[in-house]
Amino acid sequence: MEEKIKAAKSITSWSGLICKLISIIGALGALSYGISMNSKSFQGNLYFWSIFSAAIGSSASIGALGSIASYTKKNQALTALLVESTNSASPINLSRTYEYSDLNEDT
């Protein structure tokens, strides 16, 4: 069972990994754009800062989406293991019969 738990914890979500990669590329692109355009003429330009902040914000949100996808896939695998172990560890025995005893009726 321990091997199944380790395997469930190490599951990777490919869509989550792609989102994280796109987020890193977007953040690095925005930072390189910001560094290359950071001069005296762009420091007061609202258009420049709006593009820069939108690029950083969208990269961060795509990275958060990737993290959510990864954690959801791991949580799904661990929950399936929990349900499987709970169902196999506690079988319900319905065939047990009880005998009638009249010991309590004598009092």
Describe it for me?
Helix 1 (2-9) packs antiparallel against helix 3. The protein has one domain (2-89). The mean pLDDT is 79. The longest helix is centred in the middle third of the chain and has 44 residues, at 46-89. With 107 residues, the protein is mainly alpha-helical. It is built from 3 helices and no strands. The radius of gyration is 29 Å and the shape is rod-shaped. The relative contact order is 0.16.
Layout of helices and strands, plus pairs?
Blueprint: H1 2-9, H2 14-36, H3 46-89
Number of helices: 3
Helix content: over 70%
Percentage beta strand: under 5%
Output the helix-strand order. HHH
Beginning-to-end CA distance, first to last residue: 52 Å
Low-confidence stretches: none
Average per-residue pLDDT, rounded, comes to 79
Reported for the largest beta sheet, the result is: none
Give the number of DSSP strands.
Answer: 0
Class from secondary-structure proportions: mainly alpha
Whole-number tally of structural domains = 1
Radius of gyration: 29 Å
Shape: rod-shaped
